[in-house]
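Late entry, written up from scratch paper. The run itself happened at the end of the previous shift, but nothing got recorded in the book at the time, so transcribing now.
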Amino acid sequence: MAKSKSNENTMGEEGATPAKVVRFARAKGVQMVDLRFTDLPGTWQHFSIPVEELSTDLFKEGAGFDGSSIRGFMEIQESDMLLMPDPATAVIDPMLEVPTLSLICNVKDPVTGEMFSRDPRNVAQKAETHLKKSKIATTSYFGPEPEFYVFNDVRYHQTPNSAFHQVDSVEGSWNTGKDEGPNLGYKPRYKEGYFPVPPTDSLQDWRSRAVQRMQMVGIDIEVHHHEVGTSGQSEIDMRFKPLKRMADQLQWYKYVLKNYARETGMTLTFMPKPVFMDNGSGMHVHQSLWNGNTPLFFDKKGYAMLSQKALYYIGGLLKHSPALLAFCAPTTNSYRRLVPGYEAPVDLVYSKRNRSAAVRIPLYSNSPKAKRLEFRCPDPSANGYLAFAAMLMAGLDGIRNKIDPGNPLEKNIYNLSAREAARVKQVPASLEAVLDALEQDHEFLLDGGVFTQDLIDTWISYKREAEVDAIRLRPHPYEFHLYYDI
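Output as recorded:
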């Protein structure tokens, strides 16, 4: 991660070596070293070693762990695996009391000596290598905008004979009549939480302090604000970075926010739809391709100043969207968000400025360097390494095969006539449907060995068994309201 002049917690990735990391840890008084990696669904995993165990040999030989205990990794008979720390990721963790140096690791098979095919970070690295080999571009930049809810309380319970969930927030519009001793009001109404100043936005200082923690791990922040939803929906946006580096930062982003929420007596969720009848949390992903210092998506004479290459990239995103969503909107809860009427981009079209389109072209600036496209279907439940890599592969497929995205749609999609609306394709309506789509359409992901058939098969199997079937087989609490007295 890039080191800013005011940040002494990061070493900086330029010229990072194992020897420099060891010296950095000693100079900073580090006591523990945390080795982190990402499981297949996208959750950070870790274990720690005393700083006395940190040596340059660790970066060459790796550290062993049980891969059979990690979701989506190995079976019990082939469990031994290695973590290979990346010296460029050395950061002092600002969320822990004991001085701790964090290192993000790649996963290696000790038997074959090869990097593990189902390590999400390995997929991101292969995607970047594949891009360079394609000669289409040298760098892919990604800028996700994760949204989240900050609650004051959450309760959920699931047994064979009962089920419930409950979230609460001092901002929740449902609490306007609650005896809070006293109730001071200033609670955003449903779907009216976008941009009010304090006291209605009760999280202004909270977000600012969270941003300061993010800056301590080297994350460049562009903006933070309250989002549309009542009950604490918020957004903090990171400045764009190359694919793998941004995926690393997304892991830090989630880690810092969840830990800061806990530190301040609150709880934070990246669930796409935790509150009924209010806006869900998306993760709009801005993306562009560059050759060295030259942006490739700009053409002064093109539609919305987009180049033909950019339009083909959009064509790839739209064509493969049903399969892409298996990685970009990968939970059953994702499809509580992807419904019409809540600013959710369910229509597979593109447009300048129009936020109801799956792909939007921002027009804030005429600078060639600012020209990008925004894919609005993803949500923050996604594994950033896999989602960003999949989007890049779809875009490259569009460029390579000159996939025409069709004509842009400038109208308000929700005001179209029935005949016009019938011609607009929509995203699938369930996790089960996008997994089926991925099963049928994944050749573009296999190009260059970026994704492997083994990873795709494991992903589909895991999601069907652990999530689709888990929800499908359980009675829903609302079914008692509908059917108990029949």
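The chain is about 30% helix and 20% strand.
(Scratch paper discarded after transcription.)
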